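User: quick one, fold this
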Amino acid sequence: MLEKIQETAAFLKEKMHTNPETAIILGTGLGSLVHEITDKYEISYKDIPNFPVSTVEGHSGKLIFGKLGDKDIMAMQGRFHFYEGYSMKEVTFPVRVMRELGIKTCLLYTSDAADETNPAFEIGDLMIIRDHINFFPEHPLHGKNIEYGPRFPDMSEAYSKELINKALEIAKEKGIKVQQGVYIGTQGPTFETPAEYKMFHILGADAVGMSTVPEVIVANHCGIKVFGVSVITDLGVEGKIVEVSHEEVQKAADEAQPRMTTIMRELINRA
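Assistant:
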């Protein structure tokens, strides 16, 4: 695994002519945020050795390098999910490559069925993730430890409090409504049943999705600071649950784009 990570990183370093320290992972329907990136150059996943290829509609499948504001960044337009049939090592492979490339901060923007279980939330709300619950059946650090971090990494601050506080300041300055909450990650690909929503709410989750948690665990293991925000795309509260489709998730995410972009741009430039 380590050899593959280093091989992929070496390939990318030969193609790169910038030195980003911040990476962005974009979820369903949020790929158009890349239009905000200037001086950009792209590398398709299919051209990168050892890289998986996303199979999900709304996930383009390329690495984008350039500037967001004044800062060099790299962005993943398209991510990988356990439900696609990938192992957790494959799902989180790009995060380990980021570590080899010198990435210090990772921003995750997700709408992967971020179904709200908190009755105070509404569709279209931005939820800053302050913690998570790992409900995946396989752990991304299962197996021999890769010496990027300790065998038993601490997760008491999986999401950087410093970045959360900066994001809250930005939202207040710009008049952007944000929520804060706990994200529970499940394997998918089914959306949740009413009974499952109820269970997740009892467990302490405010939103549920099919991604993010594995990447966050590996980023922490690699010593990368993490900030996560999720778009609430449908309601999982008893009495409000309706049939949901992937297309509706994409639509809700698209409508949140301008607010997400403002927070992201400012956060990167103040980091």
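User: anything notable?
Assistant: DSSP finds eight helices and eleven strands in the chain.
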